Amino acid sequence: MPALMRRGNEWLARNPDWEAATCESGDFRASRRVPAKEITCRRSGEGSTAHVRCLRLWVRQRTRPDRVPQQLSHLNFVPDVVDRKKFGTPKFLPLGDMVQKMNEMLRTNPLPGRIITIETQETMAGVDPDRTYWTESAEATKLFVFVIRIFFQTGFSGRGTWEPQEIGLADFRPVCERPGGAFSGNVFCPLRRSSHPRYESFSSLAGRMSAWCLGQSDIRIANVQSIKYKLKHGETDTRRTWYTEHGYAATFYVRILRVAHVRAWEVHLPPVAVTCRTFSPVQLERVNDVEPNGKTSILGGKKPQVPSRQWRLPFVFYPSSFVSSAGGLGRGSVDEDEDEDVSRTRDRVAVWMWMTGANFISAQTSAVRLDDGSRKKGISCRKD
């Protein structure tokens, strides 16, 4: 990650009339190259999958291009182990205690800059959060932790020193609208799709988040992020900073919204009306499954089973009272012609923001499964 930050700063230095409005750490599944511009990906239920973590800057034109080029840095906070068991899964510091510890560190050693993004990053336990390449086995049991990463703009304040910054997190969990019958949320639960619970739509969840933001003042929103959380025994505990994914059975998740903010002590900030806009990639061509001989494969009138296919959807959160332009930064190449690449989706985001006069607070590229209906219906429960 430090190498990616250095390359990002080099780009900003070469383009002083642009600045990063928000930063994003993106995970991509890759073999011999990094598909940073592809909008689709496939995840196999067998074997190992290689992951590459990239840095994505959502950039916009600066109001004062004569200023020195923007430069960025980052800081990671990993939850501490509070109970290391001889057998079984260790326990980690709860989220509230973790944020409190972070604020104590930020008061003692203020960041040399202004926070622009606070991100929750899922990482395998024991893996360096700055590592950009690792592999995961589909059959193995894996332990994950949630790392909090802070991106900040470096520089000096007018006083020559920076004041301590206090951060906060607010989580919004989807409401269960229909129980799943025998569904228990356990990892081994091979039930029919009809027996799964149904949760409120993503738009409804975003509406509750927006209402909360309207009731807040003197905070600066540093990110609005959708995060998948494990559903265990029918409950979602967002205070947990770790979870286990069992390779031998399905794991059920719900998608929550997390608002990260920075407390403004000296300047009064009015409440902000935050709205969400989801941009789905346009399917350009549907490619049928074919055998090596070039013929369509049909087994008993059904197509052969293929790994689950996902779309990466950019979520854009913006206050409706500001006007600005938007852009993006990415690298990579495209092999498939099934769907538009991320640069075309990004261009549609920029055109929409220009036409509506919106300025984004944060943007996120989120992987959503295609075969469970969650892209259109907003179902928040899924299994992997």
What does this structure look like?
This protein has 384 residues and is α+β, with helices and mostly antiparallel strands. It has one domain. It contains five helices and 19 strands. Strands 2, 16, 17 and 18 form a four-stranded antiparallel β-sheet that branches. The protein is globular, with a radius of gyration of 21 Å. The relative contact order is 0.18.
Number of domains: 1
Spans where pLDDT lies below 50 across 5 or more residues: 183-191, 287-313, 319-338, 372-381
Count of extended strands: 19
Using the alpha-carbon principal axes, give the shape. Answer: globular
Helix tally equals 5
Strand proportion? 35-45%
* Largest sheet report: 4 strands, antiparallel
Mean pLDDT: 76
Straight-line distance between termini: 27 Å
What level of helicity do the residues show?
10-25%
Radius of gyration: 21 Å
Question: What would you say about this model in short?
Answer:
The chain is α+β, with helices and mostly antiparallel strands. It contains five helices and 19 strands. The two termini are 27 Å apart.
Essential attributes:
384 residues, alpha+beta, four-stranded antiparallel beta sheet, 15% helix, globular
Secondary-structure topology with pairs:
Layout: H1 2-14, E1 18-29, E2 40-43, E3 48-61, E4 72-77, E5 81-83, E6 91-92, H2 95-108, E7 113-124, E8 133-137, E9 142-154, E10 167-172, E11 176-178, E12 198-199, H3 202-214, E13 219-230, E14 242-245, E15 252-263, E16 274-278, E17 308-319, H4 342-356, E18 362-369, H5 374-377, E19 381-383
Antiparallel strand pairs: 1-3, 2-17, 3-8, 4-9, 5-6, 7-9, 9-14, 10-15, 11-12, 13-15, 15-19, 16-17, 17-18
